[in-house]
Design goal:
mainly alpha; Rhopdopsin 7-helix transmembrane proteins; three-stranded mixed β-sheet; globular; disordered N terminus
Length: 315
């Protein structure tokens, strides 16, 4: 009997209300304007990186192969949340259907988890290039790179399906307000009309554990790389340090959010929204800036591409 009542209540919740970043309309418009600028810059910069890597044969190496994947994921990751938030700026209710909410959560975790795995693979790629240079091209051949890329997406898909399936199974009978500008598992499961303690533990053991373990692996990898850099000549050391510094900056920004949000029970903190802004809008924009401004090969390739397009325009 209780199950039947729960099912009836579940069917009554077909929409969720997103609280957004602020209840003040002027503040919301100002924030949305900033998000719009960030989103446009994110699209332009990341797409430009992908085009540059495809165009310039000198960048057809494992490192830039994975970097192009990172740019593609950043475009997808920001697109999952920002367009919806921009539309909601001019809506009083800020509604999102249950199915759209689940879809948003699925792709959010798909791209986020895939990026975590990708950053870990990129650290391994740098380890092989710096610490095992003679074996590098043998180990990191194109077949291995493609298989690693495929494994990234499979792992991200499995992770995302496992989390969203837990969320779908919960009964929802109210309240229906999500204290954020997008749907995420920790906020949504709090709205379930049942005890979610077990699911919260599963989320921490899944998302939280993945984030912490990958972060530890990455820090250890770069520590080993830095130790090995002492044996290299000055020019090679400078270039390797620049690349590693860029990777570590991205890792800290991205995984810092994941550890903060998913390594604790689903309790709301005032800092959650600020961290979410960096996660969805700032980090995807910082990635291309960090990699291009600190990477001479990318800057040269970009200048070459832009210069060629300008010459075409003059003709």
């Amino acid at each position: 009997m209780e199950k039947a009542v729960l099912l009836n209540h579940t069917s009554s919740v077909t929409y969720f209300r997103l609280r957004g970043l602020s209840l003040n309309l002027k503040v919301q418009v100002a924030i949305s304007s900033m998000f719009f600028i960030f989103y446009v810059l994110t699209l332009i910069s990341n797409i430009l990186i992908v085009i540059t890597i495809v165009y310039d044969r000198r960048l057809h190496t494992p490192m830039y192969f994975f970097l192009s994947h990172l740019s593609f994921i950043d475009v997808c990751h920001s697109t999952v949340t920002i367009p919806k938030m921009l539309r909601d700026t001019w809506s009083e209710e800020k509604l999102i259907s249950f199915n759209a909410c689940v879809t948003q959560m699925f792709f959010l975790h798909l791209f986020a988890c895939t990026e975590i795995f990708l950053l870990t693979v990129m650290a391994y790629d740098r380890y092989m290039a710096i610490c095992r240079p003679l074996q590098y091209m043998t180990v990191m051949n194109w077949k291995v790179c493609v298989l690693l890329a495929l494994a990234l997406w499979v792992g991200g898909t499995i992770h995302s399906i496992s989390l969203t399936s837990l969320t779908i199974k919960l009964p929802y009978c109210g309240p229906d307000e999500i204290d954020n500008f997008f749907c995420d598992v920790p906020q949504v499961i709090k709205l379930g009309c049942t005890d979610t303690h077990t699911i919260e533990i599963l989320i921490v053991s899944n998302s939280g554990l993945i984030s912490v373990v990958c972060f530890v692996v990455l820090v250890v990898s770069y520590a080993v790389i830095l130790v090995n850099l002492r044996q290299q000549i000055l020019e090679g050391r400078r270039k390797a340090l620049s690349t590693c510094a860029a990777h570590l900056t991205v890792v800290t920004l991205f995984l810092g959010h994941c550890i903060f949000i998913y390594s604790r029970p689903s309790t709301s903190l005032p800092e959650d929204k600020v961290v979410s802004v960096f996660f969805t809008a700032v980090t995807p924009l910082l990635n291309p800036i960090i990699y291009t401004l600190r990477n001479e090969d990318m800057k040269n390739a970009l200048n070459k591409l832009v210069g060629k397009e300008e010459r075409k325009g003059e003709k």
